[in-house]
Amino acid sequence: MTLSIPALPPNMQINAAPPTEPDRLRQIAKEFEAAILTELLQAAGADKTASTFGGGVGEDQFASFLLRAQAERIAERGGIGLAELALRAMMDAPAKDRPA
Question: pTM of the prediction?
Answer without folding.
Answer: 0.71
